[in-house]
Amino acid sequence: MATIYRRAQRMAHESPVIFWSLAIGFAGPIMVLTVPPIRKSFGYKQAERIPTTFPVPNRPRRAVSGYEDS
Length: 70
Description:
By secondary structure, the protein is mainly alpha-helical. It is built from 2 helices and no strands. Helix 1 packs across helix 2. The longest helix is centred in the middle third of the chain and has 26 residues. The mean pLDDT is 89. It comes from Kwoniella dejecticola CBS 10117. Keywords: Membrane, Transmembrane, Transmembrane helix.
């Protein structure tokens, strides 16, 4: 375990861009598994879904009149 820590320290010093890219890349899948239960424990409730269609009225259509549509 100490060798992994030393290699990580050396990589952070010599090539920080690669080190932080890997750190953030490995944190993503871990956060997918840990963040939802934490949010739920704080009482977060998911927002209502946004409608993707316009509701059509339940009645027959009327013919359009006026504005030169006839």
